[in-house]
Amino acid sequence: TSDWESAWEGLKISFALQVADDAGGQGEPWLQDCVVSLSPCADLLVVAREQKAAFLSAKWRTDDSGREEMTLGVSWTGTLSTEEGECVSSTICIPLASQKRSSTGRPDWTCVVVGFTSGYVRFYTELLHEDPVLRLKCRTYEIPRHPGVTEQHEELSILYSAAMVTIDGFSLFQSLRACRNQAARAAAAGNDVIQPPPLAYKKWGLQEMDTIVDHSSVGIMTLCVFDQMKNASILGGFNASVKGSPPAMSQYVTVGSGPYTGFYYAIEGSSQPLLSHVAMAVASKLTSALFSAASGWLGWNKNKNEEEAPQKQKPKVEPATPLSIRFGLPDSRRHGESICLSPCNMLAGVTDDFGRVTLLDLARGIAIRMWKGYRDAQLGWLQVPEERSERDLSPSASLPRRHALFLVIYAPRRGILEVWAMQQGPRVGAFTVGKHCRLLYAGYRLMGVNSVTSQGWQLHTQQVCLLDPITGVLRTVNIPFHLALSDKKSERAKDMHLVKKLTTLLRSRDIDVSIFFQALESLLSNKNTPVSCLVNITRALDDTLKRQEPGEVDAELLQLCSSQLKLLQLYTDIQQLHSAADVEETAENDSLEGIEEELSRVAPTLQRYAQFTPRPSVSFAQDSPDSPLPAQAFLSQLECTEDEEVKVIRRSETEWNQLGNFLFWSCLCGKSPLHKVCYTLQQAGISPQQLLSLLLSVWLHREKELLQKPEENVRNLHRLLVALSDMKGAVEESWDTQSISPWWQQVRTTCVQSHNAAAALLAALVAHRAAKASITSRADSKFQSEWEAVSLELEQWVVCVRQLEDVLVLQTLLLVPPPPGATGGATVQCSIKTLLEGGTGGIADSVSKWVFRQDISPERLKEILQKRGNKEADDNVEQRDEEERHEQEKTVCQRFPHSLSPDFLFAHCCWEYVVQWNKDPEEGRYLCWSVEHLKMVSSPHIQQGVCTMMWSTFIAKRLSAATFLMEKDVGMGDKAMTSFLGCCVQLLNILMEADSAVEEVSAPELSIEEAWSGAEGPASIAELALEQRGVHYPLVQHHCLLASLLHAAMTFSVKVKPFSLFDSKGKNAFFRDLTTIQLMPSGDMDPGLVSVRQEVNPDILRRHLVCELYSQGLDLRAEEVMLEVEDKDVLGSQLLVLTGQRLSYSLLHSQNQTQAAMELLARLPPTLCTWLKAMDPRELRCPLIPLPQTSRLVGRLIEILPENHAQYSLALHLLEAVEVLTTED
């Protein structure tokens, strides 16, 4: 809600109006069917429907509480129609300005103008046009805001369906005054005859528009020279003549359809004014009300019950002057419903049947903005002047005052009233109102005012009002000027507006108590108010309330003042203690016995932890823990109870830490007298438990600063903890040492939940010592010794300290930054609580995530776990960092011998890598390393269980997709798919080996460290693996065969349909649960496949293999296979072609051809040259072969080819050519 929402001013309406016989009850939307008009002065309201109407006049009334208020009471009701069948179609209330010099801007009287469906417009007046009257609108004098602005004439415009009549305002004003004077004289003489003076008007026939439903008369405008030349060129063409001075034109804008909006321009002097007569002598109930003293409306005497005069003869209707449309906004489907002209005559709002509100720029004739979702909307305008301030006294005060323009939109369908800043401004206000209201916007002021008579006048007119028929309330809309500002001055203007409202409020004597509450709460929550000012104002209000009579004082307000004074005093005292120069000296008994040994024991780990703690990042100064706590934040977190105690309200973690910093940080640093601080807090009534929570919060939150001077800070923490423990209500007097103390349990709970391992460990060491001293003193105060009680409480601390030391070592490892280029990721934060909730595998799970972040290979991890790392010193910084990282991991493994046993850790690393691979299957290395980690597991039971879980959770579904969609997209590229299938083969082989070894080895017994035996949570990966059922070996072997087949097909790029190679039993067995027994293939070879294989000559395969090996350049391997070839002749022919390809590459296609090779080509026989040129060396997989190998190949050719072979002579020529090349080389 806006600050100015309270600016609604209610004017209650009490009237019982029956405008029609079928009008419903008060809750029905009867007002929407009525014609409503409100005077701009808000002193007359006209409500009409069909033939009947009611006039409501402003009256002052005293309500039941004695307060005077303005009401609108019924002053006249009756029938307005005089012609048969005519109904009221439009009304308008025009206040007429007084001609007396003593007038200050109030209207002399108000004339009601009524338009009828018969065409009559009665003030009453005679017929101007025969069509029904659609809309009456008025324009009155406005003081020009800027020099050079055209002064607009007053005018009354009447819209008919195809014509528009404009009546000059000055002529109308004079005529109405004359009629009023004649009516007064006639009433005094008892005569009803009134001679109407002539009335000047213009009548325009609006053409070239299909339907007109509303209009606006913008006024006289003068084009600039450029627009004049542009219009002349458009209308008259290239050779059009342009007049010397632009003509003055009257602009009219209409809305309807065909086009949606039309713009008409009437040049002044183009139409002669028509003369008519104003006839107010027609006696009716309205005229009786106008000139009757009994009515009490205007105050003239006339008999109320006189009969109506006979109806006049219908007068002659003057023809209209045709006026063509200049241009429009065409939209064939859109039909305009209403138009509302802005006070500055530059903008207009248009509503249509599409539920849109369009903003028009009348000077340019374009639509500049549109709102949607406002069906049946009603519009109004507000022009707000800038408020007077110091600006009026400045040298620039002669400048005209700025005005802000706002558009008011009432959406009855949604029951909302919105205010928008112009032209492209935001929505500055929205109000939820009824759905049956009427927005009343006059758009004019008093008639008869001019530049002379308006000097010094204050025009008391309302611009926009909202009438609610349900509650009978008339509200005005008031908007501060500053809401239109978007620069830095808007805040100043807003403050000035609030100061003005506050001054008015303070001058009124009867101020409600709730205002005091709001003012005090707002002041106490203001961040910029000094503490001394807060204290003085609160104390002054408290003293004022105490001086009042007991019956008049508001107890709640007095309680608020006293409680806030107490909190402010506490804030001031704490602030003074922190700024005091005196610091308490440490007493001898404050020394911590034995704490130095424990600190020296954990010091190396603390140093490494501080080294790896994340470096400070960019932060704002106000977010720094060293920033002072404002008094407002202090007050917002504390409240006084009815028992005179102070309770701390825990809101956000940040606010809680800020309050703890304010109370205890200086004490922890040794800069404040901590006993005085604790005494002050105890006297204020804050419970020791809340103080303990605040102390531990700041201790844990500022871990990094504490580790810089751990000995000194630990000593101060011990003193603070002892001081708080000695407070009343901290440790119960009746505490039985055989049970757990709630006070020390609170400390343990906080340390257990903290992620700041170092600070939590130091706090636990201090609390352990303090608790031990407290228990010892209690035991000494009694006669008997209670050893069981001592051990029960201290055993909890022993376990807690042990766990915190483990967490510190583990957290130090997790904080080790990953090497450059590693995967990285967020650092895992651990605490005792998270590790216990993580179950028996929580520690191994944290370390496995760290292994993944560090990108440690399985072999390297195995070396670390076996303590076979290289311990030799190295000057290389990276090598030293790696060794330090591995040394830290070995330290963690030593503290967790069971939770981080090799099989335990390898199982979790295997699972972590397969989870990461499942997130990104393209990273095939993750799955490969997952399988490698699995190979490192020594227990076949764990291996088998992990394999089974990996298969069912991650592998089976993807392998099934790869099998069924071998030639389609399965979410992985070729390289990733090949790697995946290879890992599948390895995984299934590991599973078969583990299944074979399970019977030979007993299942391992999993255990956990004694300090962590209370872990509750999910089972570890190893535990889950041991719970898995055994697999069916033949089924695993069956899947391994499929994976091997797919892997070979992807490796050698062979297109194959895998299922076509298996029979029906084999197909059905695929991707079943590996623990179930399935019907497997018999293993016998398919007879068809056997017959096909028998048809294949193995000698053909051997010859093909020899040629492939020679093509790859593997001549020695080829010679070995050549010994098994039976058909030497065919092989010789194949090798002869391969030799020719090699020689062709050397002589013809090599980039470094020698001169000897060129001479050899010239000496070769033509048949050999032609044969070599026909060879294609591109068929060779490795064409660049050394010449000795080729010479050896030709020698083998001569050996295996018989002399009677057709190509034997060609082989001899080849041998000669190769020998020449070898010799030359």
Automatic annotation (TrEMBL):
It is found in: Cytoplasm. Residues 30-440 form the Rab3-GAP regulatory subunit N-terminal domain. Residues 864-888 are annotated as: Disordered. The keyword NAD does not apply. Belongs to the Rab3-GAP regulatory subunit family. Keywords: Cytoplasm, GTPase activation. One of its GO terms (cellular component) is cytoplasm. Pfam families: RAB3GAP2_C, RAB3GAP2_N. GO terms for molecular function: GTPase activator activity. It comes from Astatotilapia calliptera (Eastern happy). This is RAB3 GTPase activating protein subunit 2 (non-catalytic). Residues 690-1095 form the Rab3GAP regulatory subunit C-terminal domain.
